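User: Some background: our group keeps a shared notebook of sequences we're curious about, and every so often someone picks one and asks for a predicted structure to add to the entry. Today it's my turn. The entry only has the sequence so far, pasted here. Could you supply the structure so I can complete it?
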Amino acid sequence: MDDLFGDTDPTLPERDELAPGAVLLRGRALAAQAELLRAVAAVAEAAPFRHMVTPGGFRMSAAMTNCGSAGWVTDRKGYRYAPADPESGRPWPAIPAVFLRLAADAAAEAGYPGFLPDACLVNRYAPGAKLSLHQDRDEADYDHPIVSVSLGLPATFQFGGPKRADPVRRIRLEHGDVVAWGGPSRLFHHGVLTLKDGDHPATGRARINLTLRKAL
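Assistant: Of course. Here's the predicted structure to add to the notebook entry:
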């Protein structure tokens, strides 16, 4: 059953306003978790996970792949969206329908109706991986929200403000949680603290994150 691995704490509210325009929807992806994970596997089969390198030459600790009309990539040339997988030269696989449905529904619940992403970055975190505080600034239009889906091991999500030095809120994200942000918080800094070791029944020793955006 799709709801076999429900991790959401029933004592916590289903909706948490993280900042103006930013909403945590606890357990929002649980109903579709099996379909989501099957889709992740299909995407990774077409475009395998890899550890990208930053313009400064640092190897990113989370493994990544993409689906959609454009995929986010980083290398010595910089951060950008590319229409094709640089490793294979082939277009990225299409965004699975289950990703699109979940993103549109979650965005609407957060106050952003009509969201239709054209890019989905898929991150796979192993214990010890992290994502430093950053802004999502490579998209053509900041009027569209961002939807982030957490699957597998729990992680500590950091959500700050428009300046890197702004105070940062730390939020525990569980399997099935979805965060959507846009509007006044669209360019807020965010990241993931170092993933702790564990073994999740849905993903093993890993956390999968889907970040859906309108890139082009």
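Suggested note for the entry: The two ends are 36 Å apart (CA to CA). Residues 15-213 form a domain with the Jelly Rolls fold (CATH 2.60.120.590).
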